[in-house]
Amino acid sequence: METGRSGRAPRPQTRARREEILKAAVATFGAKGYHKGSLTEIADQVGMTHAGILHHFGSKDALLMEVLEYRDRSDVADLPDHHIPGGAELFRHLVRTAFLNAQRAGIVQAFVVLSAESVTDDHPARAFFESRYATLRGEVARAFRVMCQEQGINEPDTIDKAAASILAVMDGLQVQWLLDPAAVDLAEASEFAIEAIVAQVLSPRELPLGRA
Amino acid sequence: METGRSGRAPRPQTRARREEILKAAVATFGAKGYHKGSLTEIADQVGMTHAGILHHFGSKDALLMEVLEYRDRSDVADLPDHHIPGGAELFRHLVRTAFLNAQRAGIVQAFVVLSAESVTDDHPARAFFESRYATLRGEVARAFRVMCQEQGINEPDTIDKAAASILAVMDGLQVQWLLDPAAVDLAEASEFAIEAIVAQVLSPRELPLGRA
DNA sequence: CACAGGTTACTTACCGGACGGTAACCTCCT
DNA sequence: AGGAGGTTACCGTCCGGTAAGTAACCTGTG
């Protein structure tokens, strides 16, 4: 019933040990996915048995949730003053993130695999990704509104589509890049696509595509 | 040893039975992913035991490969004359596909889940998706080259980035749409993003993003 | 046309392995 | 003393795959 609440002192090394486990879990869930990645494989990486992991996290589901929150924390941590930028600065931040991601395939893979896996039935990470995307879309949309306001533009529908598209293109490029890093330049392509979408929001142009 | 090679006639109903199984497999792999989706669950949908499925397809891996090829066949089948369009027509086709996909969540989910799952270690679908993306990027790039040539533009790097981005945004939007269909309009957002990227290729513009 | 023989299309039964989770136990640290 | 941080052992479940058996079906032969 109790989860360590009002329990006695945890040892000082425990915090580091848990973080070690979380890193191993990122590696394993990234390499195998959640369902195929086993607690035993994670445990091996930190020199433990799988029962030891369960002692720390209670269940595999709980470990997954902590992994996801752990990564979110790390992402926010590298923001100056933990402040989410607005306007054009947000898009510059997204481009910087893409360049950063191009050098940490392991973490990228974990999020790619888990986010897609989360759309399956009753997946424990589903609620996490649902609210994560909702939040991110909201922030991108807010940045768009700031930029549009500065230029006297107002197209809410366009902004919503663009916000989803920005996140979508970053994710989709990650999949292609992970499948064949030589064929896709994650950073450059992300930058190009983000600029293309931002440009279309700020000064939409008719296209030679027409209706079919 | 022999796999029906030069064996006697298969029964006429067998073809339909196999297609039934493939459809059930799409549903199950979409709903659960490849690793968590079991042969028993597929078998239940067609009123069989899991051993019956193995009789038809040999192994779970082989079934997966047939599922992927089966879907590819269906996609090509709805192209007029089985001819891959070039130039602007290809982009119109992609937009139409997005509108079509918005009404068949099951199939979309199967491809989203399987493509992301395929980036994991030793996944049986990895080679399939690797070559699939390479082919699709090539076709989109070809369409871009046709359009650029018509307008006297020549930027191979841009075209490669744009081709990957087009596919990426379509895939990424599918993930968000599956997680929350009410929050994302798959068809409209795909159309918007495709137009934005095509526009940026045909008449690139400097942006207010600058360097960070 | 009848009737074998062989093949197809399954089922039932079983195997070996992997998995998450639990319980009991030990042993340090505080 | 007693909890924190493990280990070992075990359980029940589920999975893909195989082997053996069976009924239905097709086909070549007389």
Describe it:
Two copies of one chain form a homodimer. The first copy, chain A, has 212 residues and is mainly alpha-helical. Chain A folds into two domains: 12-67, Orthogonal Bundle (Arc Repressor Mutant, subunit A), CATH 1.10.10; 78-202, no CATH class. Helices cover 68% and strands 0% of the residues of chain A. Chain A is built from nine helices and no strands. In chain A, helix 1 (14-32) packs across helix 2 and helix 1 (14-32) packs across helix 6 (105-117). The longest helix of chain A is centred in the middle third of the chain and has 25 residues, at 126-150. Mean pLDDT of chain A is 93; it is low at 1-5. At the A-B interface, helix 1, helix 5, helix 6, helix 7 and helix 8 of A face helix 1, helix 5, helix 6, helix 7 and helix 8 of B. Chain A binds a DNA duplex (30 and 30 nucleotides) through helix 3.
The structural domain count of chain A equals 2
- The fraction of residues assigned to DSSP E strands of chain A is under 5%
What structural class do helix, strand and pairing data of chain A support? mainly alpha
Q: Give a short account of the largest sheet of chain A.
A: none
